[in-house]
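ok trying this again, last paste got cut off
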Amino acid sequence: TTTTTTTTTTHTHTHTHTQAPATPVQPPPAAEPATAEPGVLEVADRIADLNNTAPGASGVVALALKRGGVAAARLMARPIQAAWRSGVVPPQWRRALGNPVAKPGDPYDPANFRKLTLIDVGAKLYVLVILHRIRPWLEPQLVDEQHGFRTGRGPGDAQFVLQRLAELAAQHGQHVYALFVDYRRAFDCVDQGALWAALRAYGVPGKLVDMLAALYTDNTITVVVDGFPSRPLSVRAGARQGCPASPLLFDVYIDLVMRCFARKCRELNVRGFVVQSNVPGRAPAERELSYQLCADDQALLYPSLPALQAAAGVLQDTAREWGFTINFAKTKGMLMQPPTAPPVDVPAAFQLPGGHSAEVVSTFKYVGSVVQQDCTQRAAVHRRICSANIAFRKLRPLLRAGCGTTTRTKRILYNAYVLPALTYSAAETWALTPSAWAAYHTVHNAFLREMAGTRLGPHCLSNDA
């Protein structure tokens, strides 16, 4: 449930009158205080949590620490405990290596690269210890509409809510005016001073906040291209790339942005959909549904165009106050009108406050799932079938009949690579129609026949059989 917001806190000169949860959630009682110095066993547990990614400037890989057992944990615990006591982190923990990875498109455009950032494994362990302790404070206080970077949640939850809203709209003959918002470099626009104030407002002990802030002080990054390093570049803003805590810290920051957005919408009486729940044996309940978030991937959902336009104006102003910029070139609109809703003319673009506009599209890929204007899953089913065909084509030398691969190995490969590509998000979010199920069965059985070396014919089993 979403925590009621009543307390007002001031973060920086540009972020005033922002609201945090009224009563910070207290984590379950622990055997030791959250600020207690970590021991060797706790460091060993955090080593087990490390991803086997490329090393930072020190060259120490996580796999080596995992193979080192207790001896490696004891070795890594020394600098962590020293930094814990003094509040001062080693200089190498504040350095990072940047490796730009080209995206599809123009290789000569500097903006067309992903930033792959590598930090020291000691800094990762230090942050993981802190993260393991602050997560119980922060997770229960985030808005329910946020599904990104959260324990037990993911893109499938956002897809389910959006699909369920489309089904309810079809059931009641309503339109859904959606705006899929794209922020320009959202992670790099986080105000660090406001972030530390927000953590304190959410009840995180000051010592843990100060230790995180120490890792963000005097940060530098060295960009390596073709083996040639640049001079160290200073980093003074944004969530730290490559840091294990950055996803949760970004959730906290954008959580405050959305709380301010929701408060302003209430003041202006801009309301989204009101969804009612009638569960037998329980009192009827209702809640407002006006947006969904998966990290910074946002969808505004309103029953009318004027309400959507008003909410977009509020979001634009609120985002600007917190340092975010909406990229209207990539922001798309959609008028979802199920067959049961009265037909209306679909505009070429939604006109938004400030002279901006958002192109109206008939399909949109939101956090990995295709959203369709007519509230059906035809485009999504077609996309999943294409993905499964690509996966099967890559493995055809190992899966086709007579290739020498055992039946057991074929089954393992098919279940591990092809079947997930075919059914991704279908079981979690879709209410499949008989025609969609028939398409799935046809493709699935075609794959199985090719693996077994059989063909459809007058004396062969049909798909239904």
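PB: full thing came through this time. The chain has three domains: 5-22+33-145+190-249, 159-183+253-372, 378-452.
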